[in-house]
Amino acid sequence: MPDARGSSGRPRRGDRKLSGDRAGAALKVLQITDLHLRDDARPLIGVNTEATLIEVLDQAFASFTPDVVLATGDIAHDATLPTYLRFLQIIEQYHHGPKLCVPGNHDLIGPMIAARLPIDPLRVGNWVFVGLDSHVDDEVGSQVSDRDIAELVAACPPIGEKRHTLVATHHPPLEVNCPWLDKDRIQNASDLLESLARQTTVKGLVFGHAHQAVEGQSNGIGLFGTPSTCFQFEPESERFAIGDEQPGYRWLHLYDDGRIDSAVERVACSFEIDLTQRD
Ligand SMILES: [Fe+2]
User: Fold this and answer.
1) All residues with CB under 5 Å from ion ligand 1
2) Do 173 and 2 contact (CB within 8 A), yes or no?
3) Distance, CA 163 to ligand 1 centroid (Å)?
């Protein structure tokens, strides 16, 4: 079973800092998630989501130059073609290299494809990046079928090849200890992770949706949940609640031997939550 709990019984949070710079020989990856961009300037619960995305990207790219950028869903809050085109316009001001996007529950696959968001697997160095589409248009919950798992396994290098895989998806594959969010996690995550561990070289899986930092592992596969680039959800809350943590991003260093180092960074942004602006 996926395991996100430390000895205290609580999920481990992902804000761990690494000591020393061991990134010299590593592939550097930036994960951003839950951008909730709008097709106009209206704030979402008091947050200008485009402004916080830009602040997050400013800080991330000032800190390091990623080889790969992963956007793990809820890229749009208003899932229209102009929103996705605006996303590409923003990201390409920072990064011209490989990118991989997966849809979240607020996204619609039609306009994502129309905008030509990059959704195909990538190979960079000794690493392969594969997206798993866990969303269903116009539904909050996830759906990952046996066929989806089989196609994902087929897209990953098999055991025996000297390559490693990082999977990107939207919905959490484990409980994050927020019941109102946990009901929408990937329900057959055990099947998914056991299949990946058995047949592939998958070393990690990054996800979003939870708007908070979470780390866990299953069958030797590292599980990395990442804060939103806009507002956060309150950790360990029974019901919907906005947290007071800042927007953030995750960096990952992927090594030739399959090791992954990763941590979350927070970005100081100024906004006042206004729950009357929820649509
Ligand atoms: Fe989200």
Assistant:
1) 34, 74
2) yes
3) 31
* Centroid of ligand 1 to alpha carbon of 74 (angstroms): 5
CA dist 187 and 174 (Å) reads 9
Q: Which residue has the tokens 């990118």?
A: 99
Q: Tokens at residue 205, please? A: 């899986």
64-119 pLDDT, tens digit per residue, is: 999 999 999 999 999 999 999 999 999 999 999 999 999 999 999 999 999 999 99
- Cβ atoms < 10 Å from Cβ of 160: 7
Q: Given 1.20.1730.10, 3.60.21.10, 1.10.287.40, 3.40.50.720, which CATH number is that of 27-266?
A: 3.60.21.10
Residue 143's pLDDT band (boundaries 50, 70, 90)? confident
Domains of the chain, residue spans:
27-266
| Of 20, 18, 131, 113, residue with least CA distance to 68 | 131
Over residues 216-229, mean pLDDT: 96
